[in-house]
Amino acid sequence: MEAELRPQEERSHAPVVGLSLCDSAPLLWRLQDLKAVRSEGLVGALLGSLPRTPRQNVRLGRPLLLLPEEERLLAERRGAAALPARNQEVAGGELQEHFAEEQQRSFEEQSVLALEDRKSALVRAMASSSGSDPGSDEVLQRRLLDLEQNFSFPRSALAVQLSTARAGLSHCPEARAFLEADWPIRAQHCPRREARFQVFRDLRGRGFFLTSAGKFGGDFLVYPGDPLRFHAHFIAVCLALDESICLLDVLCVARLGSNVKKTVLLCSPAPDGPVRYTSLRWSGMV
To answer: Distance between CA atoms of 252 and 237, rounded to whole angstroms?
Structure first.
């Protein structure tokens, strides 16, 4: 059956969003660019680690990696261009300075915590060895004072967080200069890529939010609203109108959609017409 989708008006023109390129992957570093992209309903994927929350990869920060379809739609609606090399170097210098400040703050905090751990260990050791010796308190205080005056936390013991979401990203000026690409970043000659973009633009124009659906066996996850507030309702699979589909593939994707409580949406852009949608839902046989 045909899926019911809501229309949405096109947005007006706005200032150009600056992209930093890494191996032709569009990354957004500036806060104003992230806000501008979010106002367009484009989600992307955060890749950067948070310096104050080490050893975790659940909550991530800048930069924001855009899907190819998000990048192209952004260029059409709002305008996007690669940042000049001078601006990229300035942004990189600011980020390095901020990182150094955060690392120094983290080092100071970890030094205090390490000293407290050493004091606690010393108190436990003295309590277990001295028993009820009346002079033990005086000895303990002297040792604690000596520890506090001579304690040194080595830089090599500093715990830092490394981003584990995506490997191979390098933001040094030399790497950016080597990987720099001119706009447009990607040539749009692949039929499947063109079909994906037509579907992405149509669904986004109807008010839906989209993210990648690689782990669900589709092209996009389709949300009725902001992904921070809603679960995805559809798994979009982009197909040409004249493309044949194996019946086993249809059964597999329909069963997968049923298991994750989502409706599979077959999306077929017409050459000179609207995108056609067909929903699949697994149901038992009586």
So the answer is: 12
What would the DSSP string read from start to end of 146-210? HHHHH----GGG-------SSS----SHHHHHHH--PSS-S----HHHHHHHHHHHHHHHTT-EE
Q: What is the dihedral of CA 37, 38, 41, 44, to 10 degrees?
A: 80
Query: Does domain 14-83+171-184 sit in CATH 3.30.230?
Result: no
Positions marked active-site: 223, 231, 262
- Euclidean distance between CA atoms 212 and 235, whole angstroms: 10
CA 227, CA 276: separation in Å to the nearest integer? Answer: 24
Consecutive H or E run containing 265: strand 263-269
Domain boundaries, the chain: 14-83+171-184, 91-157, 188-285
Read off the pLDDT band of 180 (50, 70, 90).
very low
Residue 242, pLDDT > 70, answer yes
Could you report the per-residue pLDDT of 99-155, keeping only the tens digit for each? 788 888 888 888 888 889 888 888 888 877 766 666 677 888 888 888 888 888 888
Joined tokens for residue 157: 């013991």
Residue 217 confidence (pLDDT) above 50: yes
Rounded to 5 degrees, what are φ and ψ at 123?
-60, -45
Q: What is the CA radius of gyration of the chain?
A: 27
Nearest residue to 16 (alpha-carbon basis) of 30, 1, 2: 30
Percent of the chain at pLDDT exceeding 70: 73
The pairing of beta strand 61-65 with beta strand 17-22 = unpaired
Is the pLDDT confidence value at 81 over 70? no
Q: What is the DSSP string of 10-24?
A: PPPP-PPEEEEEETT
What is the Cα–Cα distance from 203 to 220, expressed in whole angstroms? 10
CATH of domain 188-285: 3.40.1350.10
Mark out the alpha helices in the chain (DSSP H runs). Answer: 31-39, 68-77, 85-130, 136-150, 173-179, 191-205, 247-259
